[in-house]
Amino acid sequence: MKPPRPTLFDFHGVPMTHIFTDDWENIKHFQARPDDILIATYPKAGTTWVSYILDLLYFSQTRPDRQTSMPIYERVPFLENKKPNHPSGTDLANSLDTSPRLIKTHLPVQLIPKSFWEQKCRVVYVARNAKDNAVSYFHFNRMDSVQPEPGDWNSFLQNYMEGQMAFGSWFDHVTGWWERKQSHPKLHYMLFEDMVEDTGREIDKLCSFLGLTSTAAEKEQIRRQSQFDNMKKDDMANYSSAIVMDFKISPFMRKGKVGDWKNHFTVAQNEQFDEEYHKKMNNTTLHFRTEV
Ligand code: A3P
């Protein structure tokens, strides 16, 4: 018998599941270090891709053993993750022996442990257009048994528009982090669509933000290595060892495209979504592309 799917509840104004809140005392009091790098995203925005690139930028020369022996979710711990019978994200982060430590989070900006701000850590935020993000999240919730039951696509999409998802509303998440960027110079805000369009250019921007002096040859090697087809084949990056995921339902490395939403949204769903989108994103300077 499969254990029941977790359900959402209100956590400081954000829908969450117990998996991401059970360790809250340790998360809240997490001690960041000044050189920690926080990779923050709404779920399914390209977290693994950027984590993989950062890990290679920092450690491909000095710690190649990491890439061949440690799954990405151990190299880059997921801060608020607390699955039964697994080490918590905070424990994994505290046991990292690297400098910097790369740490992943899906928390909305207002729930980030204050130590990251006090220590003035660098933050890399990745956002993805709302429609592709919804599609990716839907397929992920179908295959990951510790995510809430997604229901059918239509009901999932309604819930997504209403922000009834783990980690809350896409709209609040991407705009909340965008606003923080205006006052926090150490926040690099990236877009999934830009990464797909020109990964090399985005790696260059990451290097300038992080103050890295990787050579052109190293960056080109990382660009090639981090292309979708390579990461999909890499058992240390494709989550094939994650027992809570059922790849027969949908693989973790699913399509990696911009515009897959067109294969899912009906004309009516698209019209309704656009209307909601314009209402919710009316007051922001943040713009997304839904095709490249
Ligand atoms: P799709 O479901 O649309 O394929 P996250 O890591 O935040 O969970 O995001 C997962 C999404 O990023 C998935 O999207 C996955 O395929 C995509 N992705 C991961 N690595 C990628 C890469 N190298 N290139 C393009 N997309 C990638």
UniProtKB/TrEMBL annotation:
Q: Which Pfam families match?
A: Sulfotransfer_1 (PF00685)
Source domain of life is Eukaryota
Q: Which InterPro entries match?
A: P-loop_NTPase (IPR027417), Sulfotransferase_dom (IPR000863)
Gene Ontology molecular function, alphabetical: sulfotransferase activity
List this protein's GO terms for biological process: catecholamine metabolic process; xenobiotic metabolic process
Top EC class of this enzyme: transferase
Q: What is its EC number?
A: 2.8.2.-
Residue ranges of domain Sulfotransferase in the record: 34-284
**One Gene Ontology cellular component:** cytoplasm
Q: Which UniProt keywords apply?
A: Transferase
**Gene3D superfamilies from the xrefs?**
P-loop containing nucleotide triphosphate hydrolases
Q: Does the keyword Chloroplast apply?
A: no
Task: Identify its protein family.
Answer: Belongs to the sulfotransferase 1 family.
User: Which PANTHER family does this UniProt record tie to the protein?
Assistant: SULFOTRANSFERASE SULT
Name of this protein? Sulfotransferase
Gene assigned in the entry:
LOC115558494
